[in-house]
Amino acid sequence: MPDITWEAPFCQDGSNCFRLGTDTDGNAYIAVAGAEDRYLTDTHDALRALIAEIKSGKADHLL
Length: 63
What we know:
Elements: E1 5-6, E2 10-12, E3 15-22, E4 27-32, E5 39-43, H1 44-55
Antiparallel strand pairs: 1-3, 2-3, 3-4, 4-5
């Protein structure tokens, strides 16, 4: 398992928490808070693009 530095959890109304993390190789991670051993990983740029798309409302239909 990579050495991931996790940020504090982001939560919506006290639930649906997720965490973002990074490693020293330049990879970015996202996981459900409490389940950090089951994560998705990609580059920082890919994670940044995903977050920008979510903030712009392009994933609202999934919620």
